[in-house]
Design goal:
Layout: H1 10-18, E1 24-25, E2 28-33, H2 42-49, H3 52-55, E3 59-64, H4 70-76, E4 82-85, H5 87-95, E5 102-109, E6 114-119, E7 134-137, H6 142-153, E8 162-165, H7 171-176, E9 181-186, H8 190-196, E10 201-205, E11 217-222, H9 223-228, H10 230-249, H11 251-261, H12 267-277, H13 289-301, H14 311-314
Helix pairs in contact: 2-10, 2-11, 10-11
């Protein structure tokens, strides 16, 4: 979903220059979204619209950062206290040369939504069928690295297929036949976008084809804010936990609260996407050490990061079940 389009990074720079110093004023906190509002964020809007944040002593502003790469940088810099981000991004940030001081404090979506997508008429049945095919990707080096790992796991060599950078336009090259498959589409959004275009699509889930299972969407803060505001941070996660529970128990009400907060959303698409997202919302706020270790090990082995990272620097569990 984050790859549907890219907004120029200049927007992020404006936010850095003119955004609040710490995103917290008179008990109010800001939570940056990883992308424009979509049903992946439904529990956050449930918490906002249904008084759950208020119940936990919080007034939370949900703000789109304008660029998928901006929130983690803004939180690391102390411009805002919280953001929605990705397990991969936290791992890369901590392993980078400057070592951005961010960590995951909670969960929103607990399994990958990212896929390798193809049209059913392509005849692709297994990853081995990518031999001789043209594969689109949008984000380098991550998408390239993930696809190569899956292809290798299927017994293919790099010269068995052609990787093509298709930019941010995922759907059109697939429909036109420019590519045979693409890595990057989210199983809840692009698959349904293709459906609404009248195209039958299928996909391979990354975690079922050689990529370690990872947390798709996590809630992050920076080390300094966490140390000084642990109670506020814990209350945020407790509120999100309650909102996810409400969403799972009352899916229709939850979807309506999201649509009420985002009236310009494409309703038909959001309804389909929400149906396919519901089972992926976090079942717990207790993050697994093994899950963080497995992805870090994979990232080092595949060259995504140049050094290993201590898991205690990557996440912290603030609540118990």
């Amino acid at each position: 979903m984050k790859k549907l389009l890219r907004i120029m990074f200049g927007i992020s720079c404006i936010m850095i220059l003119f955004g609040p110093i710490n995103g917290c004023d008179n008990g109010k906190v800001t939570l940056l979204l990883d992308w424009f509002p979509n049903v992946d964020h439904t529990p956050l809007y449930v918490a906002q619209e249904n008084g759950i944040f208020e119940k936990h002593g919080l007034s939370v502003e949900l703000l789109w950062g304008g660029d998928a790469d901006a929130p983690i940088k803004l939180v690391a810099a102390g411009k805002y206290p919280f953001a929605v981000s990705y397990q991969q991004s936290v791992t890369i940030a901590r392993a980078s040369e400057e070592e951005l001081p961010v960590k995951s404090i909670g969960l929103l979506v607990e399994h990958p939504l990212n896929t390798i997508t193809f049209l059913k008429k392509s005849g692709i049945k297994t990853p081995a069928d990518f031999k001789g095919k043209k594969i689109g990707y949008t984000v380098a080096p991550l998408d390239v690295l993930l696809f190569n790992a899956i292809a290798e796991n299927a017994g293919l060599k790099k010269d068995d297929y052609e990787l093509i950078n298709i930019g941010t336009n995922i759907i059109a090259p697939l429909l036109s036949g420019q590519i045979d498959a693409v890595i990057g589409p989210f199983r809840n959004y692009e698959i349904n976008m293709l459906k609404l275009e009248g195209a039958e699509a299928d996909f391979f889930a990354l975690e079922k084809h050689g990529i370690p299972d990872y947390y798709e969407l996590v809630i992050i803060t920076n080390d300094s804010y966490l140390e000084k505001n642990k109670e506020t941070t814990k209350n945020l996660i407790l509120a999100i936990k309650e909102a996810i529970s409400f969403t799972k128990k009352n899916p229709e009400k939850a979807l309506q609260l999201f649509l009420k907060a985002n009236p310009d959303s494409r309703k038909e698409l959001e309804e389909l996407a929400f149906r396919d997202t519901l089972e992926f919302f976090a079942t717990t706020q207790v993050q697994m050490k093994e899950k963080w270790e497995a992805f870090t090990k994979f990232a080092v082995e595949r060259g995504l990061i140049s050094k290993t990272v201590k898991v205690e620097d990557l996440f912290i569990n603030l609540v118990e079940e």
